[in-house]
Structure formats: structure tokens, C-alpha cells
Automatic annotation (TrEMBL):
Originating organism: Streptomyces inusitatus
Top-level taxon of the source organism: Bacteria
GO biological process: phospholipid biosynthetic process
Pathway(s): Phospholipid metabolism; phosphatidylinositol phosphate biosynthesis; Lipid metabolism
The protein's name in its UniProt record: Phosphatidylinositol phosphate synthase
Required cofactor names: Mg(2+)
Catalytic site positions: D91 (proton acceptor)
Length: 235
């Protein structure tokens, strides 16, 4: 849901900036690489130290590259399968860094093995959720379901919670609980989404197999009928 509406809004907002970068000779691929590097730095430098506010600020600044690079490619008329592949691949790297940063915090100074495990589950399940759709489409199925929580929702929930939780370092009381709650929401939502996509692929696969079998049976019946008619005419 957020993918649909947020992308449309920010695409309009960021179009002038994308045009500015193109005029300066910056390539869409360069924006993709720089954006991913910035997200990784924000997540893996700040989050393991518990500096969630500043980490979220850095990540938010760079995460918009995911919208800018595609906008630039469309304006320049250079959209390509390679660009889509690079963007999608580095999205997975950036997501891994974010939840990996949370896991490192809870494995270290955060000292909470359960939340460390939940963070790792968020990391892994997010990758698998994306893979199920990509793999289903690769084998020719529509995978006509997005599920409860997509990538945009996972990032918004976790980063908003992390940023607000980071205000605890400035004396804001009671915000520390927000990040654990958000991680549990993302973990459960990702598990539900994974189940939705697996069930959908299973159903679509069965429907495709049944349709192919019916088509084969129809073709066989037609061939048999033609043969019988030819034999009758010959007689």
C-alpha cells in the first residue's frame, strides 16, 4: 500500500532534483551505489552503538536514492534490465544492513538475545518475502498478492520507531519500548506476508497445471476426432 502512494508522491517531489543531477552528469547507477553505501554506513555505524536517532537521520537522507535513481533513468530514457537488477539487488543489501545493525546492538550493548533473534528474523524474512515474489514471477506465475507488509512498510515501521526511540538519548522518557514493539510487528507481519505469497504461488501453480492439462486434453480430443473423421471418409 505504501509503495503505491508514497512512491507516487515522492516521485513528483524529487523529479526536479533528479533532473538537476542529470544536468550535472550524474548517472542513475552512481546514485544507486551512493545511496546504498549511505544507508549501510548509517545502519552499521550508528545502530550498533545505540545511536538510533542519528542513524535514522542518515539512513532517511540516503534511502530516497531508491526513488531518485529510477526517476533519473526514466527522464534520461536509459531505463534497462540492468538498472532494475542493480537497484533491486542493492535494496536487499541496504535492508540487511538496517536489521543487521539492530541485531548487532542487541547482541552487544543492548544485551537482549530475544530481540537480537527477532532482528535477525526480520532480516531473513524480508529477504525471503522479496524472493518468493521474484521467483514466482520468474517461473511464469503472476503472484497476484502483495501481502500484509511489503518493503516500504517494513522500513517505515522500523525506522520511525528507531528514530523516536533514539530521542531517549535526549531525555525523552518512555520511548525505548518503541523499537522492540516495531521489530515484533515487522517480524510477525513478514511471516504473514511470506505465508500469503507461498499460498498464492501454490494456488496459481495448481491452476496453471490444471489449465495446461485441460488444454492438452482438448487438443488430444480434437486430434482423435479428426482422425476418426478421416477414417470414416476413407471407408
Amino acid at each position: 500500500m505504501l509503495n503505491k502512494y508514497a512512491r507516487a508522491f515522492f516521485t513528483r517531489v524529487l523529479t526536479p532534483f533528479a533532473a538537476f543531477l542529470l544536468r550535472r552528469g550524474v548517472s542513475p547507477d552512481a546514485v544507486t551505489l551512493i545511496g546504498t553505501a549511505g544507508v549501510m554506513a548509517g545502519a552499521l555505524v550508528f545502530f550498533p552503538r545505540g545511536e538510533f536517532f542519528w542513524g535514522t537521520i542518515v539512513i532517511t537522507l540516503f534511502v530516497f536514492s531508491d526513488l531518485i535513481d529510477g526517476n533519473m533513468a526514466r527522464q534520461a530514457g536509459t531505463s534497462s534490465p540492468w538498472g532494475a537488477f542493480l537497484d533491486s539487488t542493492l535494496d536487499r543489501v541496504a535492508d540487511g544492513a538496517i536489521f543487521g545493525g539492530f541485531a548487532l546492538w542487541y547482541a552487544g550493548e543492548g544485551d537482549n538475545n530475544v530481540l537480537c533473534a527477532v532482528s535477525i528474523f526480520c532480516l531473513a524474512s524480508g529477504q525471503v518475502v522479496s524472493y518468493t515474489k521474484a521467483r514466482g514471477e520468474a517461473i511464469g506465475l503472476p503472484v497476484a498478492v502483495n501481502g500484509l507488509i511489503e518493503r516500504a512498510e517494513r522500513l517505515v515501521i522500523s525506522l520511525v520507531a528507531a528514530g523516536v526511540a533514539g530521542l531517549g538519548a535526549f531525555g525523552v522518557p518512555g520511548v525505548d519500548v518503541l523499537l522492540p514493539i516495531a521489530l515484533w510487528i515487522v517480524a510477525i507481519g513478514s511471516a504473514v506476508t511470506l505465508g500469503q505469497r507461498v499460498v498464492t504461488v501454490r494456488r496459481e501453480s495448481a491452476e496453471a497445471a490444471a489449465a495446461a492439462e485441460a488444454a492438452g486434453a482438448g487438443a488430444g480430443a480434437g486430434a482423435a476426432g479428426s482422425a476418426a473423421q478421416s477414417e470414416t471418409e476413407a471407408t
